[in-house]
Amino acid sequence: MKSVAVLPGDGIGPEVTAAALDVVEKLGLPLDLRFGEIGWECWRHEGDPVPQRTWKLLEETDTCLLGAITSKPLREAEAELPSGLRGTGLTFVSPVIQLRQRLSLYANVRPVIDLVDRRFDFTVIRENTEGLYAGFDFHGLDDALWNVVREHPNAQASGPRATGVTLRLQTEFGMDRLLRYGFAYARSRGYTRLTLVDKPNVLRHTSNHLRERLERMAGDYPDIETEILNVDAVALWMVRRPERFGVLVAENMFGDILSDLGAGVMGGLGLAPSGNIGDHGSYFEPVHGSAPGMAGQGRANPMAMMLAVAQMLDHLDLSVPGDDLRAAVRAVAARRTTVTYDMGGTSGTREVAQAVTEELAAEKNASDTVDEVVDRLSRLDTASVSDALDSLGVGGVLAGIAPRVPGTRAAGRAFTVTYQPVDDSAQGFRNAANYLDDVPEGAFVVVDNAGSTTCTNWGSLLTRLALRRGVRGTALHGSARDIAEIRAAGYPLFSTGVTMVSGKNRVELAATGREVVIGDVTVRPGDIVVADDNGALIVPADHAVEVADRAERVEHTEEAIAGAVGAGLRLDEARRRFGYAKPWDDSGARTSRA
Ligand code: IPM
Ligand code: MN
């Protein structure tokens, strides 16, 4: 049982929190939710936006879910204090900044994903404890600070009292732990590029220091390509070519700005989640603020909060329900029938929550029935399944993809993988097979390498991992190697060809989960692959039950014919009697048997 401090906050925070928790409740997870207070109301009544009791709650729980909190500038904050507390020297410090700094939550992880079209998927990892947010922000300078800036002509013209300074704190301690987190995150999620976002052409010394730290650490992660880009250029590319990014690591303020930009690229702040993570604590929140003007109207988009919950579940090692929740949010977002105003809809917060809950239930049912039909198909010969497909006028045979391990048979839901030749600018090993970490149990991997047999897309190492993950088999529109080991492992492998040439640095992953076309067959993720010594074929998901029904009748009919012939009946008579030509036709097999 994991405990979660739930701090709904103020503004629209409580509404989106309630909506997300309604959905979470349906997941039936082992979570102990403990509610607490934080934010503007605490400031207004107690002069402290993060009361002691809340710190205590944070200490006692495994992680925290935060709604949203209003932060106001100096003057407005003072004005809203109760009269007894005004002028007593209390200053409002943004609660989220207090949490981040006091709990040392140094990595602010903000995924930017294309929920609907999946064109891009990158993550901004923002430094969260230092940089321009370290709190060294002064108006009116003492001698020490004045000595630093006094030569500047504008400072000369203003004098120390009329000059302000903010220091960008950048420490090796802070940089190293952030970079390490960034590399580890990239590796664990299969990202192959880490972009350090900075401003080396202007902030020459601090940027150079950061660069040296990056270069030192990059040696430990040869599988991850690194680059350093100016923050302004990153802003441009994030809009123009978001698909080029993997993990972006940035100092606090740059990361703050870029993550709002990222939210814009995703389709708005209503969709962007974040996690604030340290070595001994974490909290998860939507990137959006409290939108006080919208509070209480029930119009706010709860999706960012739901995605923040999904991120939290990943963090708590509950990544399967996390993925399910994300998938349900994706589906509701893609359908666009039940979305809030910011996504062009008219639905309210609660209705969106309801739609996501229903989607979760529907996905659960669908996967139950799919499991059942996969089970039935796995007991049938491809010959009967092919007859059944024929009878429905559906193709499906993966022509030219031959069995490589005699005597194996398998059926499973297609997990599609598309390869492309490595582009010229590529350097180093591309980790073209890391997708395997994400293949769900029971899936059948279908790899599209355009039928090329000049290099491989599969071998013994992948076979071993596939077996461990409960993958049912692999069909390659391409080549495999290590056939002897794969045979010894008894793994159902089907391919266009066999060659010994490595695919390393010759092909790279273009996509997973995308529709692929092999010969004249379209394979959609979730279609069912059935394969045996005859070869491999695809049963479209929406025909699967009917195909299984018909294929079972084909097999019963053939058994019946074989039995009758064995008992002395003429073959032509047996075929006629048992309806060989159309066994799926009720008037055939059934009447004859009667
Ligand atoms: C964010 C917010 C905060 C920040 C504010 C509320 C202090 O904009 O989480 O991005 O600047 O970090
Ligand atoms: Mn921000």
From TrEMBL:
<dbReference type="InterPro" id="IPR050501">
    <property type="entry name" value="ICDH/IPMDH"/>
</dbReference>
<dbReference type="InterPro" id="IPR036704">
    <property type="entry name" value="RraA/RraA-like_sf"/>
</dbReference>
<keyword id="KW-0479">Metal-binding</keyword>
<dbReference type="InterPro" id="IPR024084">
    <property type="entry name" value="IsoPropMal-DH-like_dom"/>
</dbReference>
<dbReference type="InterPro" id="IPR019818">
    <property type="entry name" value="IsoCit/isopropylmalate_DH_CS"/>
</dbReference>
<keyword id="KW-0464">Manganese</keyword>
<dbReference type="Pfam" id="PF03737">
    <property type="entry name" value="RraA-like"/>
</dbReference>
<keyword id="KW-0560">Oxidoreductase</keyword>
<dbReference type="InterPro" id="IPR005493">
    <property type="entry name" value="RraA/RraA-like"/>
</dbReference>
<protein>
    <submittedName>
        <fullName>Isocitrate/isopropylmalate family dehydrogenase</fullName>
    </submittedName>
</protein>
<dbReference type="Pfam" id="PF00180">
    <property type="entry name" value="Iso_dh"/>
</dbReference>
<feature type="domain" description="Isopropylmalate dehydrogenase-like">
    <location>
        <begin position="3"/>
        <end position="356"/>
    </location>
</feature>
<keyword id="KW-0520">NAD</keyword>
